[in-house]
Amino acid sequence: MKRNKTINELFNGERIERYDYLVTKEQPLSYVSESFQKVIINLDYANIDGNFKVIQFTSTLASEGKTTFISNFSYLLGQKGKKVCLVDLDLRKPKLHRVFNVTNRLGLNDYLSGKLEIKDLVRPSDEVGIDYNISGEKTSAVVNVLEAKKLHDLIQNLKEQYDYVLLDTPPVIAVSDALYVAKIADGVIFLVAQNIARKTLVREALQTLQNNKVKVIGTVLTQVNLKTGEYGYGYDYSYKYEE
Prior knowledge:
Largest sheet: 8 strands, mixed
Strand content: 15-25%
Shape: globular
CATH topology: Rossmann fold
Number of domains: 1
CATH superfamily: P-loop containing nucleotide triphosphate hydrolases
Distance between the termini: 35 Å
CATH class: Alpha Beta
Radius of gyration: 17 Å
Helix content: 25-40%
């Protein structure tokens, strides 16, 4: 995670896919960073009993900001003294390696196929309290991987070592992967990007999660255009709990 562009270059009304830019780090006093802080506070209230340690992040469709959100979210958790592990379970279109500026080699798929030891799977980042796993070698047997007992055992192992295990996963409508991942997660944070998915599709996605008895902790509204202050257009992150 490093600084490559200014917030004006990144948030100028277009979604620029620079995953290694952390607005919460580079612009800690910005409106966007404050919005992330509110999500952290709300999660603390929802997680008073510590029931949500393995949290899955998904959305209705692609390009709703999951990887951008999870990287900034984890940074703030690390700054608050939490020990966090990020896991890339978007095995079809992995992006987490871009956050840490590494090649997508020797990761989760390699571990599950026996080509990598667990001690080499979890990587430390340059940020305080944050470790991560990349997806690694591509596979056509995605469902088999997500249902593997070895994966379930891995997540359980990480759950015992970290305060939070954050799972970056595919959208609900596109493929069934998110539903398989939900079986190993304690709860889901559902992201909705403004002007990306239609309301009918959002309802369908949430209904699909509900039908599969998935616990939705809350929803986050992302990519809201703001025309305020010196930063011009940006992305807002607001939070709503599911009762």
